[in-house]
Amino acid sequence: MVTVCDVGPRDGLQNEPETLPPATRAELVNRLAAAGLPRVEAVSFVRDERVPRMAGAEEVVGGIDRRDGTEYAGLVLNLKGYERLRGTSLDRVNCTLAATESFNQRNGNMSLDQALTQAQAILGVSELPTTLTVSVAFGCPFEGRVDPGRVAELCTQLNADELVLADTIGVATPRDVKSLVERTGAAGVHLHNTRSTGYANALAALEAGATVLDSSIGGLGGCPYAPRATGNIATEDLVYLLEGEGIDTRIDLDALIAISAWIEELLGRRLEGQVYRAGPFPSATTPAAASASTSAAE
Questions:
Q1: Best CA proximity match to 217, nearest among 70, 33, 78, 94
Q2: Cα-atom radius of gyration of the chain, to the nearest Å?
Q3: Can you give the pTM of this predicted structure?
Q4: With 0-12 CB in 10 A as exposed, 13-18 as middle and 19+ as buried, what is 19?
Q5: Is pLDDT at 279 greater than 60 in this prediction?
Q6: CB 142 within 8 A of CB 183
């Protein structure tokens, strides 16, 4: 089984120009859970002034209608964020640090050593299942290509239940992903589609043994501290791909398409995903209809 984790309510919305109210963000979480997502990253517990789009995390969690079969996660950067999360009903802690000094400074106002110490502290005290995401694991907007050996060494210092490698700026190719997943034993990947390699990278990660794939409804996403980074791989596009490859995700693709259409209306712009606009695999048509369609296309 593959665990698809939709990070749209957190990573997807944090880079939008407008802030959606907590009730709307909670509704997004609820719709994703109702579509059959096994995991949803609902919020992040960060200072409002640093990431204003994520303000009101506790209100979002309070608006979640919990659904059996869905695990609800929250992102934290430090122990204070962890304590806030523990005061809610969320099921999983996702803590993160970057593989480079510069990105840690920009993203968390900490050095790499400080970020590592914070992550180790969170992992050490957490009473909930933990995911540790190593961001910019393949490339950094400030330092360029990241040495895989450096990432592998960092991973040996992190005792999380689940390790996820993030291609934060979308520079990885399948060979990069397969090699680093195999080398680190990472359980999952967090992929951006900035250079149209995200979906190929997802298949490469599965081939290397990963079982967790992060994605974002509609392809929402980006990073406030990663210039020119575009959205995550789209959840509905990923589910279409996985199902076509014979992997039963147990996720309702039609429901995902409807959610993306709803978000498109809310945000007033076209999203990055493809399947929500093209639709699922077309149903069979009658010969007459197919002929008429071909003639019109010609």
A1: 33
A2: 19
A3: 0.93
A4: middle
A5: yes
A6: no
**Contacts within 8 Å (CB) and 24+ apart, 262-271:** 262/31, 263/8, 263/28, 263/217, 263/218, 263/220, 264/218, 266/20, 266/24, 267/16, 267/18, 271/218, 271/219, 271/220, 271/231, 271/234
pLDDT in tens, 45-76: 998 888 899 999 999 999 999 999 999 999 99
Q: What are the structure tokens assigned to 225, written together?
A: 């501290």
**Of the candidates 68, 88, 80, the residue with the CA atom closest to the CA atom of residue 22:** 88
Tell me what the mean pLDDT of segment 10-29 comes to: 94
**Dihedral of CA 261/262/268/272: which sign?**
negative
| 247 pLDDT higher than 50 | yes
Domain count within the chain: 1
Residues pairing with 209 in the sheet: none
pLDDT for 13 equals 94
User: Do the Cβ atoms of 199 and 170 come closer than 8 Å?
Assistant: no
Copy the structure tokens of residue 17: 């120009």
- pLDDT tens, 161-215? 999 999 999 999 999 999 999 999 999 999 999 999 999 999 999 999 999 999 9
**Residue 274, pLDDT above cutoff 60:** yes
**CATH number of the CATH domain containing 173:** 3.20.20.70
155 catalytic per annotation: no
Which residue among the candidates 5, 95, 140, 223 is catalytic per the annotation? 223
CA distance 78 to 91: 17
CB 193 within 8 Å of CB 272: yes
d(CA 188, CA 37): 16
Work out the percent of the chain whose per-residue pLDDT is above 90: 84
For residue 221, give its domain range: 3-297
Q: Which residue reads 């963000």 in tokens?
A: 25
